[in-house]
Amino acid sequence: MEKTHKNTLNYKAYIFIWVALMELTILSVAASTVDFKALAVGIALFIALTKSFIVGSYFMHLKFDSKIITVMVLITLFVFLTFIILTFVDYSFRTSIV
Amino acid sequence: MEQVITHQHPHRDDEASKMGMWLFLFTELLLFGGLFLVFSIYRYMNQKAFAAGGHELDVFIGTVNTIILITSSMTIAVSIAAIQQDKKKLSISLMVLTIFLAIIFLINKYFEWAHKFEHGLAPGTDSFLHLPKGEALFFLLYFFMTGLHALHVIAGSVFIGVIIFKVKNGTINSTNFVQHENAGLYWHLVDIIWIFLFPLFYLVH
Amino acid sequence: MSKERVALPTRGFFENKTKKGISSWIFTTDHKRIALLYLYSIAFFFLSAAILGILMKIELIAPGKTIMNASTYNKTFTLHGVIMIFLFIIPGIPAVFGNFILPLIIGAEDVAFPRINLLSWYFYVGGAILALSTLFFGEGTADTGWTFYAPYSVRTGTNVTQAVLAAFILGFSSILTGLNFLTTIHRMRAKGMDWFKMPLFVWATYATAWIQILATPVIGITLLMIVAERTLGIGLFDPSLGGDPILYQHLFWIYSHPAVYIMILPAMGVISEIIPVFTRRRIFGYKAIAYSSLAIAFVGYLVWGHHMFTAGMSGPSRVIFSILTFLVSIPSAVKIFNWLATMYKGSIDMQPPMLYAMGFIFLFMIGGLTGLLLGALATDTHLTDTAFVVGHFHYVMFGGTGFGFFAAMHYWFPKIYGRMYNIKRAKSAFWVIFVGFNILYFPMLIMGIMGLPRRYYDYLPQFQPLEILSTVGSWILFTGLIIMLVNIIKGMKSGLPAGDNPWKGTTLEWQTSSPPILENFKIMPEVTEGPYEYDNIK
After folding, report:
1. Could you tell me if residue B4 is inside a domain?
2. CA B76 – CA B160 distance, rounded (Å)
3. Interface size between B and C, measured as CB pairs under 8 A
4. Do C182 and B15 touch (CB under 8 A)?
5. B53 CB near a chain C CB, below 8 Å?
6. What is the spatial distance between Cα B53 and Cα B43, in angstroms, rounded to a whole number?
7. Where in the sequence is the domain holding B131, given as residue range(s)?
8. Which of A36, B46, B103, C147 could disulfide-link to A40, CB 3.0 to 4.6 Å?
């Protein structure tokens, strides 16, 4: 009955992750000064997703906890994605918005 | 050691309380998810107005607040690692630092909002009604989403405050720290939501 | 009726050595007592809303004003809907029977978070009080219908804000229940009970819990937006600021359509428990039924647009939502066929729970088949917002979930109270309810096709004969409900001791005493075989 699990990361690793997140923040701000036109949202969201992936796997320990929680996270994200897609199915075919 | 703990807490199941916390985080995620859905639909309908609205926001304050929140996420994570190694004092001071950063975040937010209000961007006022149509939506969403996020920052700080108290009196210690982890999880979620709010409102023009 | 009251061999969890009186109930963390707290509050609200329904039907007995004016009628159907949806069918089976039976049926001593369980009941009561408080302030209770559609819900002077906040709090209660059950099912199953040895009620509860957790927050935030628009001027759905009222409908139905499966899935779980017991056969297609619960939960997220076919959605999206809607009928039909196959060549024993289960199948099928007409674009355009819709969802919700609730009540009653109700009277109550139900709702289907709009307090004279029939049906139905209620209350107080396993069930809840002891089991059970092996029980 292993109830307490071991410390999965040492302090240094957390600092390293913090630096990575800082760099991504700066990258995201820097990218906003360049005019990527339609791609801008995609780039910003991609960086944000990468950042939350890092926060999720390391700060939130998804990488070290039981896999069932990761599966649950994926179910949640998938359901949220269907909400977005199906709502956009309506709006992208609306004739009044061009 | 393990045996004794199991005996003292016949009902204790750390995995279960963590799972419960995660399930609660999912509800928070979808609470904001609904707002992100509204944001993306309205942005799609009013792209120019939303870009114009984004220009009105101060990228500098936004970036500072992002750095503050990410740092606070790191401090709470390290404080959990510290309690696991029985470093009570270090853990407590890191949590105090987390709350301190949260307060700075909120102060920045306050000045930002006050600045917007001075410029006649308060919802419900006359000058607000004269904004270009989509821009009004942008600022409504801005106030609603960052406001709700700020409430979560406050709730998270209170949660961490309770953990500080419990670490002090020894309820949370190197063998029983799942509540501390749960507070951390909540705080990271607040961080993740900001990670998305920041580029969508401040950066994408 | 001067039968001697026979003492029970054990009072089980009703006996409390440490706390006495009311505080042993309202501060309890025992899942069984919380379930009963829910049962009594839910029964109270069900009866109040049923009376509102009776009043509406009396109003409709003749064209023009009969007993109430138009605005009172609007408020009445709103309150009827809000109470029935948020205070009866959504919490109904999970909060009462999920709470009582789920830990027993998986061989656990309680749910994973007993204190949160109690908290969810307090949220329920708080939300209920807030919802009812709308009656007594300002312009009275909301007149928007239970859907709170913008922009009317933002403009009306009635107490929409309180009603909406009440729904928000009730949503919280529902989320906490779901979170608790999901964790319980993951972590607390008896030794040896792997996923495919779980009784089907557990599968249904599991799927329901996922919907409660993932869909409820969306309506939470939507309702908060309505509150923000009413109180702070955050007009997110206000067309004069560029907002789109149809987006409100999207957000509302993103929750409220999956919520339909929060209502029906637990009832289906109950039916899957009852049918094998009263046919003495192993359930046919165990895995198919288990998976179909998950499938319904998932497909349920994809079909919300069919509530908005005539609201102004774009053409292609209507076609897509219509196609997706038809998909839901597949897992539902899988369940029905498997239940019928279980009954085939079984030794069917027509006890009251079985009667209600078969009533469920019959009425749910009418509800499901009329649903197909509403899922198809062409027919829906004609039938939208007619009495046909009202008939359809009462067949599904009342004929389905309501009858499922009554079935569960009659099935687990002896386990909960240790006594048996009068079986003969329970059967006659069923038939009165069943006949009254059909006389009440079937005319609605016909009138809807003839073009009678819903939510009107007035109608053209040619509808009167059917309206009278329908109103008479409501009286018969209500009489049946009273007979059932009296029978159950009498059984509670002075029914004969039922024994631990009156129906000879094989699932774990029948292996402990009736009523169960505080700790549920003297020795924690272990599971070695599937849940429906009747060969071992004679």
Report:
1. no
2. 9
3. 105
4. no
5. no
6. 11
7. 13-203
8. A36
Q: Count of CB atoms within 10 A of residue C69's CB? A: 11
How far does the CA of residue A90 sit from the closest CA of chain B (Å)? 10
pLDDT of residue B124: 75
CA distance linking residue C391 with residue C466, whole number of Å:
13
* H helix intervals, C280-386: 286-299, 315-343, 352-375, 377-383
Q: Check if the beta carbon of residue C187 is closer than 8 Å to that of residue B19.
A: yes
With H, G, I as helix, E, B as strand and everything else as coil, classify residue C373.
Answer: helix
**Any domain includes C4:** no
Nearest to B119 by CA among B129, B110, B128, B130: B128
CB contact under 8 A, C112 and B20: yes
Angle of CA points B129, B132, B136, to nearest 5°: 60
Measured between beta carbons, the chain C residues lying within 8 angstroms of B49 are: 242
Evaluate whether residue B119 is within a structural domain.
yes
Q: Is B12 on the interface with A (CB under 8 A)?
A: yes
pLDDT band at residue C503 using 50, 70 and 90 as cut-offs: very high
Q: Which domain holds residue C226?
A: 22-536
Name residue B48's amino acid. K
Beta strands C419-420 and C496-497, pairing class: antiparallel
Residue C10 falls inside a structural domain: no
Dump pLDDT digits (tens) for C227-269: 999 988 888 998 888 889 999 999 999 999 999 999 999 999 9
Q: Which residue from A minimizes the CA distance to B185?
A: A60
Question: How many separate domains does chain B show?
Answer: 1
Q: SS3 letters for C493-509?
A: HHCEECCCCCCCCCCHH
The number of folded domains in chain C is 1
List CB contacts (< 8 A) between C220 and chain B: 27, 31, 34
Under DSSP, the state recorded for C516 is P
Crossing angle of helices B14-45/B133-168, nearest 10°? 170
Q: How far apart are CA A25 and CA A23, in angstroms?
A: 5
C9 within domain boundaries: no
**CATH number, domain containing residue B182:** 1.20.120.80
- Which CATH number covers residue C509? 1.20.210.10
SS3 call for B10: coil
According to the model, what pLDDT value does residue C2 have?
A: 45
Q: Quick check: is B6 in a domain?
A: no
Query: Is residue B1 included in any domain, yes or no?
Result: no
